[in-house]
Amino acid sequence: MRRTELDPSSSPTAAFGVQLRRSREAKGLSQVRFGRLIGYSDSYLSCIERAERNPTLVLAQRADAALDTGGTLELMYWNISHTALFEGFPEYAQQEAGASVIRIFELGVVPGLLQTHEYAQALEAGAVARGSATRQQADERVAFLLTRQGSMERRPPPLVHAVLDESCVRSAVGGPAVLARQLEHLERLAEQPAFIIQIAPFDLGEGRPFLRPVILLTLRDGTTLGYTETHQRGYLERDITTVTEWDRDYDRLQVEALSQAASLAVIRQARKELSA
């Protein structure tokens, strides 16, 4: 049978099919043998690899487990079925899954990769209460977040450097108990070598270089991508001039923010104040 060659940039479904085929072949598995492993027929898998059918979430999860892809296929699945996600975000998440360094600046809330499950649920409950999301969409967003967090457990893990505006540890998302446990989680993450957490204090004022959340991804080939959001959608930034400027501003932010030791002191103090 003639092999169908797909352009992975033509659609998210094509990208999934190409990645599935490459991952399967890297393991030396035929479609028949792979199908037996994950409980699908080889004809169905052939349709997926040729982008003639959309994958299911279960298929993506089983394929990730069988092929040791670290959750990549599940993230790509969400790029196909992304009605609950912020426009532009699935494209970013796919790049995040392969990054070697992730540098984050966030305002107002703890960034997703550092969130506890209940903190994430509280944020989504707020969206449902405001009418900006349905219950199903909220549940899908939390599930997607857990998939992203799971992909950080790959070996070697990416270095995650997060600079949080002080508002992130002061906003009582979910109430005092939920926030207190979230702050404890930040302290535990900071003890791990793959995480650096700093606080940009309120008194940094106009010295803070960013007015909205920004993420910089360093990919394995050394390429740097940027990501930011408006209220309407997210933007993956590839322009070298823009990304270089963001990179320079992030370096300045790291210098101006509190050291990790001083940042942890702020986090612990905020947690103590919740129980006072």
Labels describing this entry:
276 residues; 51% helix; alpha/beta
Protein architecture, described:
It is a single chain. The protein is of the alpha/beta class and 276 residues long. Helices cover 51% and strands 13% of the residues. The chain has a 6-stranded mixed β-sheet, sandwiched between helices. Helix 7 runs antiparallel to helix 8. It is globular, with a radius of gyration of 20 Å. The mean pLDDT is 89.
pLDDT under 50 segments (min length 5)?
Answer: none
Overall structural class, as computed from helix and strand content, comes to: alpha/beta
Distance between the termini: 71 Å
Oligomer: single chain
Rg over CA atoms: 20 Å
Helical residue percent?
A: 40-55%
Q: What is the number of E strands?
A: 6
Mean pLDDT: 89
Cross-sheet strand order for the largest sheet: 3-2-1-4-5-6
Order of helices and strands: HHHHHHEHHEHHEEEEHH
Layout of helices and strands:
Layout: H1 12-26, H2 31-38, H3 42-49, H4 57-67, H5 72-80, H6 89-96, E1 99-106, H7 117-130, H8 135-151, E2 159-165, H9 167-170, H10 176-190, E3 195-200, E4 214-219, E5 224-229, E6 234-237, H11 240-256, H12 260-274
Parallel strand pairs: 1-2, 2-3
Antiparallel strand pairs: 1-4, 4-5, 5-6
Concise account of the structure shown:
By secondary structure, the protein is α/β, with parallel strands linked by helices. The chain has helices at 12-26, 31-38, 42-49, 57-67, 72-80, 89-96, 117-130, 135-151, 167-170, 176-190, 240-256, 260-274, and strands at 99-106, 159-165, 195-200, 214-219, 224-229, 234-237.
